[in-house]
Amino acid sequence: MKRGLKGDEEDRNTSMEGPAETGKMMRKLDTEPKDEVSNWGCLPQEILLHFLQYLPLLDRAYASQVCRSWNQAFHMPELWRCFEFELNQPASSYLKATHPDLIKQIIKRHSNHLQYVSFKVDSSTESAEAACDILSQLVNCSLKTLGLISTARPSFMELPKSHFISALTVVFVNSKSLSSLKIDDTPVDDPSLKVLVANNSDTLKLLKMNSCPHVSPAGILCVADQCHGLRELALNYHLLSDELLLALSSEKHVHLEHLRLDVVSENPGQTHFHAIKKSSWDAMVRHSPKFNLVMYFFLYEDEFGPFFRYEVPVTHLYFGRSVSKEVLGRVGLNCPRLVELVVCANGLRPLDEELIRIAERCKQLSAIGLGECEVSCGAFVEFVKMCGGRLSQLSVMEQVLVPDHRYSLDDIHREVSKHLGWGWFPDMMPTW
């Protein structure tokens, strides 16, 4: 039960653990006996490509120096279809001088091969500027997936808006087949979204944009109006409006499969959250009865006022901060489509009644995770019994369960396993 979009093709680029160790191993190959070096050089090409695609850029470059065969593999187009640019500010002046030059060489030679690209940048303005410089060079690209990810704030938001937009527009204009776009924490604006739509309206299927203060609901509506193939939309809740939901519910617009909303508060009591009308949600369900509504809440307890006051078609619900018994009670009453629920924290009052209500009303619930909460063992067993075999994921911390006169911690796993139909034990640490 992890936050995040699933199935994105560019995720195949994720660096495997220990790339530095791998680089050291490759640089030491010259000390090995000649026959062993020869064996390394004779690796089948498909295995070598599979191996290299998991390495970050510098380790790929080191690998290309091992032998002629590895150098040839380093320059094969197949290696550069999927790539993640990790832009950090290293302490070594050598790396500062080498990394940008190496990237420019790769772009010059392989920009027309890049299809699935993401930029991960640290909090420095220098890294964000480097990412924009690379974007500006992608004039011969045919990207299908682009992700701009700030691993720590600020980053892209520190750049002059005009600098960022001009670099991004290069990609929007030159890539006529973008299907997936993630632009979180960036100064993208409504006019640049219109450029995106003008050039990629037939191909765009996923748009993810959270914490983009220069985008308005009208900008999102422009995308919804013209990108009829759009299937997944991820937004900050502030960008959601009744008008947008009604537009998405019109027959001439898209049929969303996933709508993901981040409901985030930075400072307690300083953020106002608007309410979406029940009629707008009802229109969305009528138009796309099988769509998934995924909501991630990072609010303080006094900010939940507008939420779950009436029936909401949420299917996946994640509470990243403490949530009150009263709010969870409203979830049980007003979220009949709920499939997955994760509660990371609650107060010290047991959630017995709330869990039972959720089991009674949420007939599709199949996954639940409980962190810093309290539930009596008897109520927990009753909850599992009511949900029955439809629970496929049950992640509950051991300290959540409070022994009572019916069950102790020693025997609860046997009772729960009996009703689930598979072996279950409480967790020692969170798995979400």
TrEMBL record:
Residues 1-25 are annotated as: Disordered. SMART domains: FBOX. It is found in: Cytoplasm; Nucleus. Transmembrane segments: none annotated. GO terms for cellular component: mitochondrion; nucleus. PROSITE patterns: FBOX. GO terms for biological process: regulation of circadian rhythm; rhythmic process. Pathway: Protein modification; protein ubiquitination. Keywords: Biological rhythms, Cytoplasm, Leucine-rich repeat, Nucleus, Repeat, Ubl conjugation pathway. Residues 37-83 form the F-box domain. Residues 1-14 have a biased composition (Basic and acidic residues). It holds the Pfam family F-box-like. The keyword Plastid does not apply. InterPro entries: F-box-like_dom_sf, F-box_dom, LRR_dom_sf. This is F-box domain-containing protein.
